[in-house]
Design a protein that fits this description.
Blueprint lengths: L1 H35 L9 H44 L3 H16 L1
Amino acid sequence: MEQNIQLKQITKIIDETVDKEIKELIDNVIQENTKSKGRPKKYLNTEEAKEKAKEQRKQFKQRQRQKVVLFRKEVTAKQLDIAKMINKYILDDDDIDSMIVILDNLTQN
């Protein structure tokens, strides 16, 4: 009889410990599932994220420098073209005098 009581107590203790372990396992699985919801992490750690951000900033600055260089080249080319056009159409005093003479001759006729 005492053996039956001891066996029952032992099985009860075993069941309780097994139930606790099973509950802990289930809780851990549930917590992992809730943590994994949402957007997945892009980087494994903060160092990797900082390194990637630094690289992206560097690439952005390079692209900006290239854009500025191209813009300056275009602007200087246009400025040179404008200067050439102005020099082409600038009239000297002699040119203006000859135009006035021609216009006077036309109006007199």
